[in-house]
């Protein structure tokens, strides 16, 4: 009896075939949101707002239907799904995201279940309304930083990674200059030809050839400096007002810069300072979870904290990269109280802020400012800051911020001036 083998067209299962990286990229704006959708909430309500699984389900549904991450066959398959099938697909994708350690899901406590532990029945993680919450993991944040860096570098075109070039010459591995006589402390990367030539010129052509200490010639390479950077990020409430989210793009750029330094400039350091009514240092691993802060802009306090961080660093170059959209409008007084002027460019606030800029100049700290607004008073203030510190000012938008910042960081313009 003959056997018959039936072949049929392969139909992929979207839940298993879909790329988690592509899905995470499509969800990046949602996962890194900074409060723009709740911009009119009270700050203290906004600060405690958490992302629920219901929100994630809706974001995934929008990504499946509206993004271009799917091929034609899979898109047609999803478009023909019933609501029940779509819900099942979304649940499977959330389960994959959790299994592959991109998110952590915190299910609400079920009070109907008996507790095996002593004491009162309850759970400190219980959420209002019993809604399940989730949090993006460090693995997810690292991937989003890599993706942001790749997208930004792609918009810049081809770019050769390297280190920060200077005008100095040093002995090293990659030869790029003429040889020099070896001195104590130099890297012993011998130029064999030059060393033998020196010995032959001194003693002539005979064997054995006597090589003396003065004959040693070593290759020179360009001296590549290390750089300590403090990213000074304005998280005042204005960063999500006026119909534009300026804070989420700034966070993406900061994550991309962090990934760039960690992978391509391992000798460099990057620290993060948030400034609003006051200022605080924040671990870079927590950046993606940050939402906008209180309402005012205490630029001086941010500069003071940045200087304290840079004083601890032993690097050739020290710089502050400041991203802001507002005029200085707050000042921490000597007794700890915060003086505020909502209209900005208050003479007292501006004068004290410029004093802090002058301290940066004396300490050899460069300040590069990236402005996300362009009113006349703000331009004057920024120009004064750049003149005092010989830095650079970029008046840009949330859409071009990353290109300008990465170009500045990787370019030769950041070299030490000798």
Walk me through the topology:
Elements: H1 14-17, H2 20-26, H3 28-31, H4 43-47, H5 53-66, H6 72-79, H7 83-99, E1 103-106, E2 133-136, H8 138-156, E3 164-170, E4 177-181, H9 192-203, E5 217-225, E6 227-234, H10 247-264, E7 269-275, E8 279-282, H11 299-311, E9 317-324, E10 330-332, E11 338-340, H12 347-362, E12 366-371, H13 376-389, E13 393-395, H14 401-410
Parallel strand pairs: 6-7, 6-9, 9-12, 12-13
Antiparallel strand pairs: 1-2, 3-5, 4-5, 7-8, 10-11
CATH fold-type name of the largest domain? Rossmann fold
Helix fraction bin: 25-40%
Give the class from helix and strand content and strand pairing: alpha/beta
DSSP E strands, number: 13
Overall, the morphology is: flat
State the order of secondary-structure elements, H for helix, E for strand: HHHHHHHEEHEEHEEHEEHEEEHEHEH
As a percent range, the share of strand residues is 15-25%
CATH superfamily of the largest domain: von Willebrand factor, type A domain
Class of the largest domain in CATH?
Answer: Alpha Beta
In the CATH hierarchy, the architecture of the largest domain is 3-Layer(aba) Sandwich
Main sheet: which strands, in order across? 8-7-6-9-12-13
Largest sheet: 6 strands, mixed
The tally of helices reads: 14
Number of domains: 3
Radius of gyration: 28 Å
CA-to-CA gap between the ends? 90 Å
Poorly predicted spans: 43-48, 111-128, 158-176, 412-418
* Mean pLDDT score: 77
